[in-house]
Design brief:
The complex is a heterodimer of chains A (169) and B (238). Chain A is mainly beta. Chain A has one domain: Sandwich (Protocatechuate 3,4-Dioxygenase, subunit A), CATH 2.60.130. Chain A is 6% helix and 29% strand. Chain A is globular and about 55 Å long. Chain B has one domain: Sandwich (Protocatechuate 3,4-Dioxygenase, subunit A). Chain B contains one helix and 14 strands. In chain B, the strands form four sheets. In chain B, strands 3, 6, 11, 12 and 13 form a five-stranded mixed β-sheet that branches. Chain B has a four-stranded antiparallel β-sheet with strand order 5-4-9-10, with no helix packed on it. In chain B, strand 7 and strand 8 form a beta hairpin. Classes of the chains: A mainly beta (169), B mainly beta (238).
């Protein structure tokens, strides 16, 4: 049966629609809601979060879109020609402050899911049950770096020995 | 094949690393992904109910000073979760090539005409029953550089939001009977035939309008899981 009209009986699970790549032309469909400020720049606690998305050759990825989930805030940033992106964020509340980040790009048949932790939360981070699931030597890929200007930097490497940790669920 | 650390029974379909799709070679993870148990997943998500959209945002044929060229189609369906419950009030985004197989994007150099009256982008919010509806133009097939004489089957790009970040889905809707489907590395990156057929819409008389437009139905099911259990071939016995 094709994906015409779906219906689930009691206790049944529908087959999920599979993911496909956003492709090289995502900009025409997704740029209308370029929403990189999760909080207003200059508001209390607001800091810039910047980084670059790179492939296995270390090249910046110009056709990627990042979505940052920090309920109730949400943001979307499309990468520039050099693979760079930017958000304005505020550290969320919580025992271990962190944000969820989804990466979409040409070449990714489904999104990648990662987390951004804060560099000034060493004690909280060391007690986090999610970071504890990550091999020690790779944990630092999930912790943003402090920028000399007071902002945060979180680079995303999709492929290679020093690649960012991605999660499954 | 991309693995989930410590969980050989879980796989991805489509996989991140899909050799027939060349662009995945340097953009797919090489390290095993780390499984987050349900108890450690974050909830919540964006609510788009206040997003200022009008019905013209869902009619891609009205894009310019005149009517877009090509075969008009009505594309409608529902966004559901895996229990069949509607996902209400959430955003659906659509983008596509025009009738000649050309995107309005500076990277697209296909020698096919642009249509001044077709931007190829639309968006809407799902209703209380999860329903969405677009009016658009049947997209053309187009060549791409993946392999010799490579042509993408006609498709619409769909981006849908579930209720939490785990239900986020970007997919492509295909058309029934397209002869290019069986040759397409992106469509066939989904190895289970039963699963990839969820991306093929159905021709629909109920939404076909007399003297005006053809109708296609496409329900979208968001699952909340990136992984699927590996399907053991039942015929294999030890």
């Amino acid at each position: 049966m094709k994906a015409g009209s779906e219906a689930a009986g009691p206790g049944e699970r529908l087959i999920a629609t599979p993911s496909q790549t956003v492709g090289p032309y995502l900009r025409i469909g997704m740029e209308w809601m370029h929403a990189q400020d999760l909080v207003a720049p200059g508001s209390a606690g607001a800091v810039p979060l910047v980084g670059t998305v790179t492939d296995g050759d270390g090249e910046g990825i110009p056709d990627a879109v990042l979505e940052l989930w920090s309920p109730p805030a949400w943001g979307r940033s499309l990468t520039g020609d050099d693979g760079s992106y930017a958000f304005t964020v505020v550290k969320p509340a919580g025992v271990v402050p962190h944000m969820d980040l989804l990466v979409f790009a040409r070449g990714l048949l489904r999104q990648l899911s990662t987390r951004i932790y804060f560099p000034d939360e060493t004690d909280a981070n060391s007690a986090d049950p999610v970071l504890a699931l990550v091999p020690q030597r790779r944990r630092e890929t999930l912790i943003a770096k402090s920028d000399p200007s007071g902002g945060l930097r979180f680079d995303i490497r999709l492929h290679g020995p020093d690649e960012t940790v991605f999660f499954a669920y | 094949m991309t693995a989930v650390a410590g969980h050989p029974e879980l796989r991805f379909d489509p996989d991140y690393d899909s050799p027939d799709y060349r662009s995945s070679a340097t953009r797919s993870p090489t390290q095993p992904l780390v499984l987050l148990p349900e108890s450690l997943l974050d909830g919540g998500g964006p609510v788009f109910g206040e997003t200022p959209l009008t019905s013209s945002d869902a009619d891609l044929t009205l894009g310019g000073h005149g009517e877009a060229q090509g075969q008009r189609i009505n594309v409608s369906g529902r966004v559901l979760d895996s229990h069949g419950r509607p996902v209400a009030g959430q955003l659906v985004e659509l983008w596509q090539a025009n009738a000649a197989g050309r995107y309005r994007h500076e990277v697209d150099t296909h020698a096919a005409p642009l249509d001044p009256n077709f931007t190829g982008t639309g968006r809407c919010l799902t209703g209380p029953d999860g329903a969405y509806r677009f009016v658009t133009i049947a997209p053309g097939s187009y060549p791409w550089g993946n392999h010799a004489n490579a042509w993408r089957p006609a498709h619409l790009h769909f981006s849908v939001f579930g209720r939490r970040f785990t239900e986020r889905l970007v997919t492509q809707m295909y058309f029934p009977g397209d002869p290019l489907l069986s040759f397409d590395p992106i469509y066939n990156s989904v190895r289970s035939r039963r699963v990839r057929e969820r991306m093929v819409s159905s021709f629909d008389w109920d939404t076909t309008e007399e003297g005006w437009a053809l109708g296609y139905k496409f329900d979208i099911v968001v699952s909340g899981h990136l992984t699927t259990p590996f399907e053991q071939p039942s015929a294999v016995r030890r």
